[in-house]
Specification:
alpha+beta; single chain
Length: about 260
């Protein structure tokens, strides 16, 4: 099987993003996306300083017509430019190739709650952070996929009380799962943090295991300010057999995609 995880940066690199997704769709079974916008309006783009693709979920659904989609928003009425007066939602999305047996779908909040961010408290710390998950039936076993976008503040991705509590909540979720688990996404963590070590008590960290040098690229404006070369991870149960894992240098976002082939 093959899984692709990518923080899509609100679709701001739209053409390159769609070229990458269409190319990978030929043999990918599961896509996990972070920073996805969805709107019921006819708008395609919105923004001044940061022009995002506000209909990104629908764009993916059209491009990935052979996949079933699952959306887990954490914030409504907000874009990268701030709050807006039209219906829009922001969050996580998983696309699963049609024909795969999806047994369960859900989410939980590792930090805060949905719509915790308000016009009066419009800063990054007030954004609720959910973990989207689904369980796939594979012959005589099950596979749980967790899609993560972790707590963020414009500062180095070091330990904070919020991040440690977030990892503890995710670990509690992992401990309750039966079968194999893959946890992927943008954790907003450095690899040497206690927050990451908490998750590694249960899972293999493929970014470390495969010696990946960075999950970011030159589109990330704060790369040299904070020296944060990592944000994104794929963690797997010890029993999962890894056939290939790579983080190709693709400018489809300010994050790099992570591609996992496994059995």
């Amino acid at each position: 099987m093959k899984l692709v995880s990518l923080n899509i940066w609100g679709g701001m690199q739209f053409d390159a993003l769609m070229e990458f997704v269409r190319s990978e769709a030929k043999d990918t079974d599961i896509f996990c996306f972070q920073e996805v916008f969805d709107t019921t309006t006819d708008f395609k783009t919105f923004g001044t300083a940061r022009i995002c693709r506000v209909n990104m979920l629908e764009e993916f659904r059209e491009a990935l017509s052979n996949f079933d989609s699952y959306f887990a928003p954490c914030q409504d009425g907000w874009t990268f430019d701030g709050f807006v007066d039209f219906p829009i939602a922001y969050g996580l999305a998983i696309f699963v190739r049609k024909g795969m047996k999806v047994e369960d779908v859900g989410e939980f909040y590792a930090y805060g709650r949905r719509n915790m961010r308000t016009a009066e408290q419009n800063d990054a710390r007030s954004m609720g952070r959910n973990v989207q998950y689904l369980k796939i039936g594979l012959e005589d076993l099950s596979l749980t996929i967790g899609n993560v976008h972790g707590y963020w503040v414009r500062a180095p991705k070091t330990d904070t009380p919020e991040r440690i509590a977030q990892s503890e909540k995710i670990l509690d979720f992992l401990n309750k799962q039966t079968g194999d688990v893959i946890l992927c996404g943008d954790f907003n963590l450095r690899p040497d943090t206690k927050s990451m070590a908490i998750l590694e008590t249960k899972m293999r960290n493929l970014i470390k295991e495969f010696g990946i040098k960075t999950t970011r690229n030159e589109l990330y404006a704060d790369l040299k300010i904070f020296n944060d070369y990592f944000a994104d991870y794929v963690l797997v149960s010890s029993s999962i057999e890894i056939r290939n894992f790579q983080v190709p240098y693709v400018l489809a976002s300010d994050h790099l995609p992570m591609i996992l082939e496994f059995s």
